[in-house]
Each structure stands twice: as structure tokens, then as C-alpha cells.
Amino acid sequence: MDSDTPLPFRLEIPDDDSLGLxxxxxxxxxxxxxxxxxxxxxxxxxxxxxxxESIGFTGVKKEVxxxxxxxxxxxxxxxxxxxxxxxxWAPRLDLYSRQLDTFDRIPGTKGSVxxxxxxxxxxxxxxxxxxxxxxMPSAPPPRPPRLPEIEGTx
Length: 154
Known about the structure:
By secondary structure, the protein is mostly beta strands. The protein is built from 1 helix and 9 strands. The strands form 2 sheets. Strands 1, 2, 3, 4, 5 and 6 form a 6-stranded antiparallel sheet that branches. A 3-stranded antiparallel sheet has the order 7-8-9, covered by helices on one side. The protein starts with 6 loop residues before the first strand and ends in a 19-residue tail after the last helix.
């Protein structure tokens, strides 16, 4: 894989629909990004868009807000495994981390797994990304901090 070729991805964030006295409000999100591979880091860049549609007594209102570009670098030694799923239909790349907070700053992630939704024509590039991630040097996982000893009360 050419290290200058980023992998385009999309992140899934659940919609938020509500019905109240003022009418119906539907909020949806799209997050498009690029995954760049460095020597021992994965760099994620993304732009999030929020689409709001409101229907009420005053009419229909549509708004689109766009966030500034987000960026997060993740060290390779934090990635435990990379897995490509859904080869033909709905391809996606799952990245499994050694720590729960590795992907916290990336929208739509929960816990230690980040799922990148891919376009079908990027499947070969995604397979090359998995091979490149597996070929990156992987240091042993960091040791957990040592907890202080607690003295007995009795």
C-alpha cells in the first residue's frame, strides 16, 4: 500500500428524532473521514455534519451545520487487531484497541472498537490497510498502573 493513499471512511452515528408540542424534529449526522498510516501511527481525520429538519406550526425548517476538521493520532501499539468484514456488501473495517479510551475523541465510537464504514470500491485499499497495520511494529501493551495498597480497618 502506498503510504500516501488515505483510506476514505464514514462513521455511523444514530439519528435523533423527537415529537413534541412544537412539532417533529429529526436530527441526523454524517461523518466522513480519511485514515492515514504513518510508520507507527494511524491518523484519523474527519468532518461531521449535522442535519436538522423541523416540522411545526411555523412550517418546515432545514439546517446543516459542519464541524471543523477533527484529527486524532493513535499509536500502533494500542491496536490489538484490525479486521475487514462484509467484503462485498457493506464493507467495514473494525479496529480493536488495547484500551477503552483509545478512540474516545472520534465521533460515534464506544469502547475499544472503532468501526469504519467503507465504499465497495475501496475494499482492496482496505485490505492493504489491514496488511499494513499488521506489518507495523507492535510494542507490548502498556502495563496497567499499579494500584496503591489499602490498609485494613480492623
